[in-house]
Design a protein that fits this description.
Oligomer: single chain
Strand order of the largest sheet: 3-2-1-4-5-6-7
Order of helices and strands: EHEHEHEHEHEHHHE
Number of strands: 7
Largest sheet: 7 strands, parallel
CATH class of the largest domain: Alpha Beta
Distance between the termini: 29 Å
Structural class: alpha/beta
Shape: globular
CATH topology of the largest domain: Rossmann fold
Strand content: 5-15%
Helix content: 40-55%
């Protein structure tokens, strides 16, 4: 991982209790930042913090970001604990492959509420604090937000919304606040292994399929996504806003 210095920068990471979000929170913490970690429950956040180093620079900001109230509670808790906010990372997300015929309103609501509504309302709640610090926002989108995938219409809709919402916010909030997103392909997280690979009838074949999907013939690591997020948050990236950075091993270059 690249070396960054975020000494005393104040960061909130939603969905920071596992997978990509936890890797991002860990990377910021290792780079000297003080980090508020969001998860759905106080218990899940406390458990995550207990596994990390630098606990004196870690704070809990639990809340269900699938609701406006949960977004506002998590953001305001983080700002109060940190004494302000320099960087917001919207990493909370859900996703499942379901054909159109088998999709229902509850799946639509759950996916859009967390992935798109949650991202928007966390940004809105953090905006005052970020304007004060001329901070920045990094949203976690997906390669599925840049191209369609079969059996993923709802997920693609949510992540496509995150990508274009990022662009719109970047225009509206410049020059005070930068807004970017990253678009990972398949990432080797505990969720991918637990919910997809380990449940498959032929896990070895499924893992190979996920790796072969990208021209680089592997999945990304959570730490690779975290490195790109940290770069977008640095002063070196100060002229980058409205960007959708592909971190997909070439999947969106075409198939």
């Amino acid at each position: 991982m690249m070396r960054f210095d975020f000494t005393d920068k104040r960061v909130l990471v939603t969905g920071g209790t596992r997978g990509i979000g936890k890797a991002i929170a860990t990377a910021f913490n290792n780079a000297g930042a003080v980090v508020a970690i969001n998860g759905r429950t106080a218990g899940s956040v406390a458990k995550t913090i207990s596994t990390m180093n630098g606990k004196d620079r870690l704070f809990a900001a639990a809340g269900d970001v699938g609701t406006v109230e949960g977004c506002e509670n998590a953001v305001h808790t983080a700002i109060e604990a940190l004494g302000g906010l320099d960087i917001l990372v919207n990493s909370a997300g859900v996703g499942v492959d379901v054909p159109v015929e088998e999709s229902d309103e509850s799946l639509w609501d759950r996916t859009l509420n967390v992935n798109l509504k949650g991202t928007f309302f966390c940004c809105r709640a953090a905006l005052g604090a970020l304007r004060e610090t001329k901070g920045n926002i990094i949203n976690i989108a997906s390669d599925a937000g840049l191209m369609g995938n079969p059996n993923s219409s709802i997920y693609c809709a949510s992540k496509g919304g995150v990508v274009n919402m990022t662009r719109a916010m970047a225009l509206e909030l410049a020059p005070e606040v930068r807004v970017n997103c990253v678009c990972p392909g398949y990432v080797d997280t505990d969720m991918v292994r637990r919910d997809w690979i380990d449940k498959d009838d032929d896990p070895a074949s499924l893992e190979k399929m996920l790796c072969d999907y990208a021209p680089m013939k592997r999945m990304a690591t959570p730490e690779e996504i975290a490195s790109s997020v940290l770069y977008l948050a640095t002063i070196e990236a100060d002229f980058i806003t409205g960007s959708a950075l592909q971190i997909d091993g070439g999947s969106t270059a075409g198939h």
